[in-house]
# Entry
Amino acid sequence: MKTPRTFLQRLRSYYALFTIGFAGFLIALAVLEQEGMPRVWIGHLFMFATIVLYATLGVLSRTSNVLEYYVAGRRVPAMFNGMATAADWISAASFISLAGGLYLHGFDGLAYIMGWTGGYCLVAILIAPYLRKFSQYTIPDFLAARYGGAGDSSNKGGRAVRILAVAATIIVSFTYVVAQIYAVGLIASRFTGVDFSVGIFLGLASILVCSFLGGMRAITWTQVAQYIIILVAFLIPAIWLSGKHTDNPIPQVAYGKLLPKLSAREAVLIDDAKEAEVRAIFRRRADDYDARIRALPASWEAGRVEVQRKLDSVKLRNASLLEIRAAERGLIAYPKDADAAAREWADARAQNLARAEPITPHATPYPGDAETSDIKRNNFLALVFCLMLGTAALPHILMRSYTTPSVHETRVSVLWTLFFILLIYLTIPALAVLVKYDIYNSLVGSDFAHLPNWVSYWTNVDKVNPLFSITDVNGDGIVQLAEITIDADVLVLATPEIAGLPYVISGLVAAGGLAAALSTADGLLLAISNALSHDIYYKIVDRGASTQKRVTISKLLLLAVAFIAAYAASTKPGDILSLVGAAFSLAAATLFPALVLGVFWKRANHQGAIAGMVAGFTVCVYYMLHTNPVLGGSAAGQWFHIAPISAGIFGVPAGLLTMAVVSLLTPAPDRQTNALVDYIRAPEL
# Structure
């Protein structure tokens, strides 16, 4: 008699077949491209096929069971939970923006790699196993029970902590999910040709079909498939470029050989007279904007008259329709008043000053004079600190601790997660070096009359806020490095075309970026909706709600939050890495002290938790508002020259110190709370 296969064996078979089928799909599209299939069809096929795949998994995994909807029935094997968590973690910031950040900032960009991977060590050691031992559904659940009295988590203290934890979960997750949906719009607009805003809502449909129908169960099995796509999509271009430039197909090993060559090329460009000429032009432009700002409001009035005169002139001489429209656009784009002119000209001055800066060597840590170097080093360490502690407090990641069968499986799952993340994260620095070397040697120094096709593709993706631009500033017909601007969010998506790979690989990378954004967005939206439905509606509003009603409420709330986030993303609030960095600082400052002290310090009580969460959040938000120009602040208000993205460096100590002091000044927790702490800290037998 044939022995029935175990659940783990069946899963391995299913995903092995999926991988084989996906490989066959890629080969089929490659053959069709060789036979002349239009590129736009290939892009549409990739987008359509992957979205249909996720939708199918979502429909097959639909459920109304509370345990399945919130925590996937607590039966996800460690390896597959590790893959799902890795997909949840490898967001649009990691897949799309991180290599671009390393390309632009060199050594300084390694702070993201170190902070995010180091944070998982904290998750494994400090938090994940204890949450699994607690065996509930959400992070606010744990905090309310720990700080409200284990016997009755609905009392006044527990309720206040729960509400604060829900508020923190919503703010952190919402900030993060907006970045993911922004990335979905970017990818959809590039590979389907639709408007950016339309692309956002198309991607939203595929997000909802998973998380809305099946909750954590649907998201988990979809994320395993998404991780496979992410891994293949990221590794193929990196392996190709590695083989092209180093004759070694292992990019993680080979790129060290390329760094000296890149440094030599940088030295040539630093001494190039044409590069210096272009940078001098940008410096003069910055000086011109500075003079116009100082002469306000007269300079604004003179400029408006000049733009109007130019429009009248082209109309009087019967110029072509194109010239007339260009003059009209110039008048429309001109600042509406002197205040608007001050803001726009200040931004333009800053952009020109940035482009006038000399090349920063890629492998040089903290370049600059002694003072500048110290500031850069301090910001590097502060960012690593915030990303590590923020990782250890992200609600959508910690929720996955509840989905494994046991505490031991949770520990093993975190190990698998680190392994699957490192497959990508060890490749990211290599890809940044490989692409930079390719651009510095293939594009820089080439003729403007013979630019590669990918340049025109990417300059037309977003004409209002160009992601890539290249302009002959000094009019010599030759491309200088200073004449190229490339957004961090576009580098990975454009890598296959930069490398000269077939367009089918571009479609694959887009599918990988889409999978990264969708997998994280699914987890974030579920974290928000579960916090609202379980912790607010069920635990506070209606304790008698049926399981069916609780799941229905969660689905409706998920739908509402998704549309609000999509609208926020359509306004293009900032680059992806900045949004994500803000989310990590907020998570670290608000949730990390309460989570860690809740496990390791019995004296911590609900008064301390409330005070610590409020203090950490307040300090963090104040610093962001006070120092971020986008939020109305000024860089002059920075403390110790720390950038606003690392606001958690001040919020975390404020939260820890406040929580400790208030806890010591107020009554100790009751016996039941201490028993709960002993229980979650006791080794599992």
